[in-house]
Amino acid sequence: MRVLAAMSGGVDSAVAAARAVEAGHDVTGVHLALSPSPQQHRLGARGCCTVEDSRDAARAADVIGIPFYVWAMADEFGRDVVDDFVAEYAAGRTPNPCLRCNEKIKFEAVLDRALALGFDAVVTGHHARLEQTETGPRLRRSVDDGKDQSYVLAVLRPDQLAHAMFPLGDSTKAQVREEAARRGLGVAEKPDSHDICFIPDGDTAGFLRKHLGETPGDIVDGATGEVLGSHSGAYAYTVGQRRGLKLGRPAADGKPRYVLDISPVENTVRVGPAEALDVDEVIGARPVWTNEPRTEPFECVAQLRAHGQTFAATVTPDGDRWTVRLHTPARGIASGQAVVLYDGDVVIGSATIEQARNAVPA
């Protein structure tokens, strides 16, 4: 097959491209230039989109022996990922930009362009397994639980997964690095990126402040409505947050307070005790089924944040909504994140968390 290898400049995508070549595919490498001004990003940034990343990807393609191109996609990335990120925080939600990037950039804009150019599939370095079966694609967890990325891939539709390849799903990260070293790839020991790629300094609140400005408001007690403190922008807070509240007085019981929810309309941040964060029901909107849609209630396992714990659940589908009832409460679940459903290690589908209902009313 003719395949396009998305090469970020990291070790995973380089080894994925090399494995695709070794499997007999006709491989072309492409680096996605997602920043409008990559020269302004410092070398060695813990995010991505740096000049260094582009050069690392080019060197890896040269070692592997494949053609290599750079695609400028800053406009699409800015509109569909960065602007969406800012808008979601402004609306009081907590988005996951990696899911949005996979959905809108790597497996919509890139895949559409690749298919139009005559490629059969896009190969990436995601740690997940993908099986093409007679009934459709089966997306599964990686064998490396600590690096599994099936959660951020669960936004992909079956028609997109049908043209995807994830060669690393049967390997641990340590094995990938060892293989990169054997192949002579200079990125073998390159550190993983940990931050939001377009916020390489990790200062999310500062980034949002530049885009949304300061909007002072009150921090209030979730039970009584009493004003306990003030904030310069509700967007700087997320459900479950404990640090940085700077409240004027301690709770009567001496226990710490946590952010319970954010109201952008009233511009308030509501806080309360840890137990008020417990949730036993999640409403998911705009579901994506990775295989056949289900219409009847079913049992499964739900994951509510990337690399978070999983919960046994009963799911009731209802058109473009899911009601996910957790058998044991989860704590600190924010709207805007994804709920991903699994049958064992197989992804059933995903939905955006629209509402998380407290098991213990605040």
TrEMBL record:
Catalytic activity: S-sulfanyl-L-cysteinyl-[protein] + uridine(34) in tRNA + AH2 + ATP = 2-thiouridine(34) in tRNA + L-cysteinyl-[protein] + A + AMP + diphosphate + H(+)
GO cellular component: cytoplasm
Protein's cellular compartments: Cytoplasm
Superkingdom of the organism of origin: Bacteria
Coiled coil regions, renumbered to chain: none
Stored PANTHER family: MITOCHONDRIAL TRNA-SPECIFIC 2-THIOURIDYLASE 1, TRNA 5-METHYLAMINOMETHYL-2-THIOURIDYLATE -METHYLTRANSFERASE
HAMAP family: tRNA_thiouridyl_MnmA
Protein name, UniProt field: tRNA-specific 2-thiouridylase MnmA
Gene transcribed to yield this protein: mnmA
